[in-house]
Amino acid sequence: MKHVSAWQFVMLLTIYLYSENAAFLISPIIKTASYNAVLSVLLGGVMGLIIILISTAVARKNDREYFAVFGKYIVGKWVHIPLILLLTGYLLHRASIV
User: 15, 13, 21, 1: which is closest to 66 by C-alpha?
Assistant: First the structure.
């Protein structure tokens, strides 16, 4: 594979984010929510799917550039850079826990 398109990168990122949270955060959510566990898991799943649908729609619009490159055209350079840094920090933090 010589080139990874933005679409492929966003799909990998969203699948990783969604599956990791689903796999490792379900039991703490259920313990915390007690009686509302089913509702909280369902709402979390729906919100995760909405995030995936939005991110894939954005990736399909510009499939020639990486998400980290064309994100500054969507939200602006000064908002995009802290968001990418926060995402990187979050991924490193989650990787250290697992």
Answer: 13
State the burial class of residue 32 (Cβ atoms within 10 Å of its Cβ: 0-12, 13-18, 19+).
exposed
DSSP secondary structure code for residue 34 in this structure: G
Are 48 and 96 spatial neighbours (Cβ–Cβ below 8 Å)?
A: no
Secondary structure of residue 89 in the 3-state scheme: helix
Q: What letters, b where the CB count within 10 A reaches 16 and e where it falls short, cover 73-85?
A: eeeeeeebeeeee
pLDDT tens digit string along 21-39? 666 766 776 777 777 777 7
pLDDT digits 0-9 by tens, 39-92: 777 887 788 788 778 877 877 777 777 777 777 888 888 988 898 898 888 878
Place of tokens 């969203």: 14
- How far are the Cα atoms of 13, 17, 19, 49, 86 from residue 43, in angstroms, in the given order? 21, 16, 15, 10, 24
